[in-house]
Amino acid sequence: xxxxxxxxxxxxxxxxxxxxxxxxxxxxxxxxxxxxxxxxxxxxxxxxxxxxxxxxxxxxxxxxxxxxxxxxxxxxxxxxxxxxxxxxxxxxxxxxxxxxxxxxxxxxxxxxxxxxxxxxxxxxxxxxxxxxxxxxxxxxxxxxxxxxxxxxxxxxxxxxxxxxxxxxxxxxxxxxxxxxxxxxxxxxxxxxxxxxxxxxxxxxxxxxxxxxxxxxxxxxxxxxxxxxxxxxxxxxxxxxxxxxxxxxxxxxxxxxxxxxxxxxxxxxxxxxxxxxxxxxxxxxxxxxxxxxxxxxxxxxxxxxxxxxxxxxxxxxxxxxxxxxxxxxxxxxxxxxxxxxxxxxxxxxxxxxxxxxxxxxxx
Length: 362
Hints:
This protein has helices spanning 27-32, 49-64, 79-91, 105-114, 147-161, 176-196, 222-234, 248-256, 291-303, 338-351, and strands spanning 34-38, 67-71, 96-100, 119-123, 127-128, 134-135, 140-145, 166-171, 201-203, 205-206, 209-213, 239-243, 262-267, 283-289, 315-317, 324-326. It is of the alpha/beta class. The chain has 2 domains: 2-145 and 291-317, Response regulator (Rossmann fold); 147-289 and 327-351, 3-Layer(aba) Sandwich (Rossmann fold). The longest helix has 21 residues, at 176-196.
């Protein structure tokens, strides 16, 4: 997929989110600092990545005493909407503007070039030029996640749990920040098969080309997620990973109509979110990106005059720094010994004994 070229970076660029602390944040400085956020389609109550990022903004407001402002992009957002949203935050005199999602990359890039004295952060994407070559700007801090590492663990768990030997996955739109979940899941299943002489199948890829995963085409239409999940269940899958924002709610709903089926959440621990309460007992696990902590940390740096942009200062969440993880076990019963096995696999990934391939680790 050509767009992934914009995600290239040197491994030395990996930095951990600083521990959150109020030390050094004077009341006068904090109260005059304004952090702002523009959502992707789906909005701040999407029970997914927009909401997780928004929680970080709200936490910063409470913990640091800052001012905040937001723009919620429409469900059918276009690039014009993103440009307008970012510009409105510039007009509102924001010190830091956070764009949530790959789709805001161009709007953030162009605004940052035109407003070098304004700081920006961009979640789930680095910057690129129009020819897709990498771009680094001193006033833009990319916040990215090697989600494949946590998805690998979810894939191994799903392979151990499936009763039918078939797992499925699909995306909303096949952006790099989406397919990285699916690629990691597939690698985890493949590793399980190799280690246990099994042949669990992952549905959703077109042949062997995993750059062409199944997709609904948007992040909003829950009925599409339900229909596609029902099709996977009809093909024999009993566990599905939807990487599609609110569309994934349709997958959860489908599990209610098909006893014995389960869903894997994304971005946040779905078990704890009201939007997923109806089928919480069917949530196998969730692949979490700890965006709230990263957002609050970047804001804190801005308040303290320590904001540092550019590719060399980008943040990449990993298992090692706690930026990604799989949720704790909730209602679904796990196979005997799987918790200890997952802990061992996590340790091996952190140590580099197991290499999970992604755009961050090729």
